[in-house]
Design brief:
By secondary structure, the chain is an alpha+beta fold. It has 5 helices and 7 strands. A hairpin with an 8-residue loop joins strand 6 and strand 7. The structure holds coenzyme A. The site of coenzyme A (COA) has 21 residues, from strand 4, helix 4 and helix 5.
């Protein structure tokens, strides 16, 4: 079990991550999408190739933006993941934001998400994002705390409507 504030290593998934990443995806199903656009009928090598194209901005398809999906590891163990979008489409500019992260339940409350978001902010900036938007559900106390600890400034709490729950929009300048 990683210690509180353990070193977290962010890196692209590779061939050796298949079992752990899919297990994490299944474990978080219903709460959080660990592997975007992955399903049982998708071959892991094809999935890695798609992620590589997303990273380089190749063959993105309509409304997709250049982005990276990184596994978060502590002592070689997959503890979570982060998605960093280097551009925003309409959905991301309002609701999705530049960065989304998740930590497996058994590794929570050790400061890992705070560490992951801190590193992800640097990666976003290295890739040309100047102001970073991060959003979370208004009821997601843990995520709001992570964002605020990393220095996010609340822009607004968007009220719930018939299509969505209330959510918070934060900016990092
Ligand atoms: C949100 C999430 C990533 C937090 O991960 P984590 O590694 O537990 O976060 P941290 O340990 O860095 O916690 C940061 C702060 O939140 C607080 N916190 C964490 N979980 C909490 C909870 N359930 N209730 C209240 N506070 C909580 C911690 O106490 C900590 O504050 P502190 O250091 O001042 O005590 C994790 O709960 C998760 O993966 N949830 C499901 C996916 C999700 O919601 N992702 C965010 C999408 S925007």
């Amino acid at each position: 079990m990683p210690a509180r504030n353990a070193v977290v290593h962010l890196r692209p998934f590779n061939e050796n991550d298949q079992a752990a990443a899919i297990a994490a995806h299944r474990e978080m199903e219903g709460e959080f999408t660990f592997l975007f656009n992955w399903s049982d009928d998708v071959d892991w090598s094809d999935y890695l190739e798609r992620l590589e194209k997303d990273r380089s901005g190749t063959d993105l398809g309509e409304d997709r933006v250049r982005a990276t999906l990184l596994g978060a590891q502590c002592d070689g163990v997959l503890v979570g993941r982060v998605s960093i979008r280097f551009e925003l489409n309409d959905f991301l500019a309002w609701r999705g934001g530049h960065i989304g992260y998740g930590v497996l339940e058994r590794y929570r409350r050790r400061g890992l998400a705070t560490n992951i978001l801190g590193q992800a902010l640097n990666i976003a900036r290295e890739n040309g994002v100047q102001r970073v938007l991060v959003t979370c559900d208004d009821r997601n106390v843990a995520s709001a705390r992570v964002i605020e600890r990393c220095g996010g400034v609340l822009e607004q709490v968007v009220a719930a409507d018939s299509t969505d729950v209330a959510f918070r929009r934060y900016w990092f300048d």
